[in-house]
Amino acid sequence: MSRTLIIYSTVDGQTKAICDQIQEICQAETQMVTMVSLEEAQAVNLSYFDKVLIGASIRYGKHRPELLQYVNRHRAVLNSKKNAFFTVNVVARKPEKNTPETNPYMKKFLQLSLWQPQQLGVFAGKIDYPKYRFFDKFMIRFIMWITKGPTDTSGTFEFTNWDKVKAFGKAFSER
After folding, report:
1. Which residues pair with 32 in a beta bridge?
2. Secondary structure class of 147 (helix, strand, coil)
3. What is the reported pTM?
4. Which of 121, 133, 135, 136 has a CB 3.0–4.6 Å from the CB of 86, allowing a cystine?
């Protein structure tokens, strides 16, 4: 039985929801899965695990700085394991920006990261206007207006392609 670690960095919870789905897939393949937040991962011994998956969201055009610090600090151990990385962002709702080769946030991550993951994924996220504080609601609505996305602040708009998530999770579980 392989030991799998899933680490998530999320702002509003969509990245964790995607990780939950992948965790279910891995457990169905009789893998022992531990899932932790990026903050909790600081205290986890990576050498215990056979496989590591990291999922991270974008907010205002950037991954959290702690993400790059973590992967750069642990790149040697990550490289010694079967590994994967995915990013979650609303830009990926556009077909021309929803692959590792075309998504600007994945490309930037790969440029800045000393770790070069074996498997890459890009998933569109979710906009949940009613859940946001005033500033976030205003800024995200403005960004959506510029990029021709949904601007109705009373709505929740989920762009995640769950079939794509399942295919990614299945591929990762079979690594």
Report:
1. 3
2. coil
3. 0.92
4. 121
Residue with tokens 């991954």, as numbered in its chain = 63
Q: Could you count the other beta carbons within 10 Å of the beta carbon of residue 89?
A: 25
Tokens of 28: 């169905």
> What's 36's DSSP letter?
E
Give the chain's largest Cα–Cα span: 48
The pair of structure tokens assigned to 20 is: 């939950």
User: Parallel, antiparallel, or unpaired: how do β-strands 51-57 and 82-89 relate?
Assistant: parallel
Helix (H) or strand (E) holding 139, with range, is: helix 134-146
Q: What sign results for the dihedral spanned by CA atoms 17, 20, 26, 32? A: positive
Q: What does the block give as tokens for 36?
A: 């932790």
- Does an H or E element contain 138, and which? helix 134-146
The pLDDT profile of the chain, 175 residues, written as one tens digit per residue, is: 789 999 999 988 999 999 999 999 999 877 799 999 999 999 999 999 999 999 999 988 889 999 999 999 999 999 999 999 999 999 999 999 999 999 999 999 999 999 999 999 999 999 999 999 999 999 999 999 998 999 999 999 999 999 999 999 999 998 7
Q: Which residue has the tokens 């919870």?
A: 13
Residues ≥6 apart with Cβ < 8 Å to 128 = 12, 156, 157
> In this structure, what DSSP letter does residue 24 have?
H
Identify the CA nearest to 12 among candidates 129, 98, 106.
129
